[in-house]
């Protein structure tokens, strides 16, 4: 038994508090921990890439799944892959080059979030999305089945046919329905492993929405970086990135976690107003931007730019940071995004990374899936205590007013009332929570005692 | 196409063994895996198959028991004959304080960590010697370099194993067979799950990288991670009075 601090277990490093962490080596040990007769609240915990308190449980017990990292089966005829829950998407990507599909392409994970160092179980529990939501939807849409260990000692196989309600509750279920032991994924055929990438400057928000619409049909991956310092008529200025697979090429496998890593959180964060300005100015003016200026990149360079710096989250210093990601639906999406960026600029709290993209119209895979049709904005804020929290509350008000919601893989502070207002299926979800499972987030949202 | 590397692993379900096996699977190796739990062997075999192994055979049995040797050797012969690489990765840490009070348990710690590896290595060494090629890769420990109050039963077994390997290396060198003595420091595995981890601790993946590199190069002794060479240099040379007071 090892006691660990929440700041080392969540990516935002802003949630102190001790919890017991156990790391089972085999599925039956993990299932036994899920069913431990001790009434201590328990929760699965993957690679620690959730930002807020979703994968934490101060005073409780975490069952870390990273040693449950074995592949179980892969069928090259169908592209179906079964893995233990602690397999990283990175581990899957390292195999992709050998997995040739029937028509000369490769079998490839259809949905990849912004980092490949997340576990399969975490990707399901958060129903993560990628830059291709408009084409492939969320991760959960490609999960064929999963095995869930419950605290009553049972193992439930869940799929669209078997235990379909528990299946829908577990996808995007924040780890609260039990411990995911294993899952089967449907991979998609990709014609090649290089991407054709284009980065187009956009003058304002109208530019973003026009490019997003124009790119929907022909570009697999889209996302825009927004310069948070811009205001007034330049609000929303930034760079729109889009990419699509090139047929035929075998790209190098993505590298292991880089040796170049940030070893310690510095006492004073190097990310301040000055460096933020310099970064954003350089990013917006770097060479190679422009319509028609196509670059050929291995997919991992385009999809996971931050994975090149190990432990980048430590750059925010000892107090950590908050990531705020929200989605707002179409009728007012443009006005609300403008209001959100305006509020950030007015607070003088520029975000180092502001990412904007549109979600497509898809039926959600889970009861608490985050994506809805509209625009999603992600912002990082160094934790400056009450000042930061007050800003995030102001952003919440705008998002709720617009009928949007925040993403719990990122959020670490929204209250129960806002949650109930923005996730309409929360009561249905609550029926499927395992009575012995709980997290810091589930207590905050009053989903569990 | 060149023939697949034949890799045998005794103690194949340990964390370090699994990490090593994955590296050979990526090269398309054929495996013979021996270990105690048939269920765990099947999990490991399935994993290696997806990771690129050309073939995986398994054999379940208690490697510490001499009575099982013949069956193990027959299964290995049926799987792929004399391997190119044999990794011996089984062992138990024992519990020093408990074992001090229970000589039978103390003997079992020596049996599992010293006697059984020697028993299994002798026929494998002879077969590789006859063939004139092969690599014996054996996981010993830095604990075998100096008797310490906290683990000198385990240390005695690993120290004896390293001495055996040194002699075996010289015996087999003329035949072109390498003997690699792997001495890991603290590794974060199920065997050490109750220890508090610090900066000296390494992951099984890092240790496996070092083991595979050492096996490829046919190195004699490999400390993993590398800094243990220097830590052990200091520990070996501490005066006895200092060692006693350090209470290591």
Automatic annotation (TrEMBL), chain A:
Keywords: FAD, Flavoprotein. Residues 14-190 form the FAD-binding PCMH-type domain. The keyword Kinase does not apply. The keyword rRNA processing does not apply. It comes from the Bacteria. It holds the Pfam family FAD_binding_4. GO terms for molecular function: FAD binding; oxidoreductase activity, acting on the CH-OH group of donors, oxygen as acceptor. PROSITE patterns: FAD_PCMH. InterPro entries: FAD-bd_PCMH (IPR016166), FAD-bd_PCMH-like_sf (IPR036318), FAD-bd_PCMH_sub2 (IPR016169), FAD_lactone_oxidase-like (IPR010031), Oxid_FAD_bind_N (IPR006094). This is FAD/FMN-containing dehydrogenase.
Automatic annotation (TrEMBL), chain B:
GO terms for molecular function: oxidoreductase activity. Keywords: Oxidoreductase. It comes from the Bacteria. InterPro entries: NAD(P)-bd_dom_sf, Sc_DH/Rdtase_CS, SDR_fam. It holds the Pfam family adh_short. The keyword Lyase does not apply. GO terms for cellular component: membrane. The keyword Membrane does not apply. Belongs to the short-chain dehydrogenases/reductases (SDR) family. This is Short-chain dehydrogenase.
């Amino acid at each position: 038994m090892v006691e660990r601090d929440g700041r080392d277990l969540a990516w935002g490093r802003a949630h102190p508090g001790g919890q017991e962490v156990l790391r089972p080596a085999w599925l039956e040990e993990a299932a036994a921990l899920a069913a431990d007769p001790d009434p201590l609240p328990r929760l699965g915990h993957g690679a620690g890439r959730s930002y807020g308190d979703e994968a934490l449980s101060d005073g409780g017990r975490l069952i870390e799944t990273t040693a449950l990292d074995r592949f179980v089966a892969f069928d090259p005829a169908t592209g179906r892959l079964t893995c233990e829950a602690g397999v990283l998407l990175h581990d899957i990507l390292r195999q992709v080059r050998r997995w040739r599909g029937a028509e000369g392409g490769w079998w490839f994970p259809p949905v990849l979030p912004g980092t490949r160092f997340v576990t399969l179980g975490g990707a399901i529990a958060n129903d993560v999305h990628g830059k291709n939501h408009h084409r492939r939807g969320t991760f959960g849409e490609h999960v064929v089945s999963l095995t869930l260990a419950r605290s009553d000692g049972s193992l439930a196989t869940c799929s669209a046919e078997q235990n379909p309600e528990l299946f829908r509750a577990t996808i995007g279920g924040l780890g609260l329905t039990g411990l995911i032991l294993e899952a089967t994924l449907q991979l998609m055929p990709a014609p090649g492993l290089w991407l054709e990438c284009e980065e187009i400057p956009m003058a304002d928000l109208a530019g973003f929405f026009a490019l997003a619409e124009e790119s929907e049909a022909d570009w697999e991956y889209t996302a825009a970086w927004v310069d948070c310092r811009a205001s007034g008529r330049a609000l929303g200025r930034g760079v729109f990135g889009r990419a699509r697979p090139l047929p035929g090429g075998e790209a190098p496998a993505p590298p292991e976690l880089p040796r170049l890593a940030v070893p310690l959180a510095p006492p004073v964060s190097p990310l301040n107003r000055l460096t933020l300005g310099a970064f954003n100015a350089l990013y917006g003016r770097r060479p190679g931007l422009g319509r028609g200026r196509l670059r050929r990149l291995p997919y991992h360079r385009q999809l996971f730019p931050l994975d090149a710096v190990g432990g980048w989250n430590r750059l925010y210093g000892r107090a950590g940071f908050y990531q705020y990601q929200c989605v707002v639906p179409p009728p007012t999406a443009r006005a609300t995004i403008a209001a959100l960026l305006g509020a950030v600029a007015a607070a003088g709290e520029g975000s180092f990374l502001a990412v904007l993209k549109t979600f497509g119209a898809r039926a959600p895979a889970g009861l608490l899936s985050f994506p809805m049709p509209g625009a999603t904005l992600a912002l990082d804020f160094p934790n400056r205590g009450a000042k930061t929290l007050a800003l995030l509350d102001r952003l919440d008000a705008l998002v709720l007013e617009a009928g949007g919601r925040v993403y719990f893989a990122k959020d670490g502070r929204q209250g129960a009332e806002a949650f109930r207002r923005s996730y309409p299926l929360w009561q249905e979800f609550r029926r499927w929570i395992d009575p012995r499972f709980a997290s810091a987030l589930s207590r905050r949202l009053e989903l569990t005692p | 196409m060149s023939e697949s590397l034949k890799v045998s692993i005794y103690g194949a379900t340990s964390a370090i063994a699994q990490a090593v096996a994955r590296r050979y699977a990526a090269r398309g190796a054929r495996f013979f895996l021996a270990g105690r739990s048939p269920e765990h062997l099947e999990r490991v075999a399935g994993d290696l198959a997806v990771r690129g192994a050309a073939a995986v055979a398994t054999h379940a049995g208690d490697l510490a028991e001499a009575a099982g040797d013949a069956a193990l050797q027959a299964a290995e012969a049926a799987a792929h004959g004399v391997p190119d690489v044999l990794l011996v990765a089984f062992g138990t840490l024992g519990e020093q304080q408990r074992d001090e009070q229970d000589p039978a348990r103390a003997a079992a710690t020596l049996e599992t960590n010293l006697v059984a590896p020697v028993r299994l290595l002798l026929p494998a060494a002879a077969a590789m010697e006859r063939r004139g090629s092969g690599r014996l890769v054996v996981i010993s420990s830095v604990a075998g370099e100096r008797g310490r109050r906290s683990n000198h039963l385990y240390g005695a077994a690993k120290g004896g194993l390293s001495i055996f390997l040194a002699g075996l290396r010289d015996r087999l060198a003329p035949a072109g067979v390498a003997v690699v003595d792997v001495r890991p420091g603290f590794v974060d595995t199920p065997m050490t799950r109750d220890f508090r981890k610090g900066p000296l601790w390494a992951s099984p993946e890092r240790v496996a990288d070092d083991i595979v590199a050492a096996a490829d190069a046919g190195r004699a002794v490999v400390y993993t991670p590398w800094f243990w060479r220097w830590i052990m240099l200091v520990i070996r040379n501490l005066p006895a009075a200092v060692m006693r007071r350090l209470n290591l």
